[in-house]
């Protein structure tokens, strides 16, 4: 009789241990809810990039480059940029529809995209949210003169408003 009591106690202990493990696993499982509350809304994804109103082929070419901080210096800076056409900054077409330019503080140029925004502004920068920290806003563009400003405050202070003046095509 003593042996059967020990066997019963060991069996009960084994069942209790198995239930403990089973119930512990239930805490990490998600069971369906039978309540009438609506399911949570899905998290919003990244909105697709809006196309810019300026095409990348419009800014491909050779450009004189200068910059200014004070808006009163814009005309003088455009003349200085035009004088830089002896050593132009070259913007080339990228392999996936973008343009190849330098990012702030980067020695190697890379392909950047022209991106639009709901506010109607255009940006040049790597793929991703608009405006991104590495983007530059296109302040103005008339086909001959392109003025940009970096979105990043530190880069905007260091580089100012970048003025690109289209160099005349070589004869």
UniProtKB/TrEMBL annotation:
PROSITE patterns: PROKAR_LIPOPROTEIN. Residues 115-134 are annotated as: Disordered. It comes from the Bacteria. This is Lipoprotein.
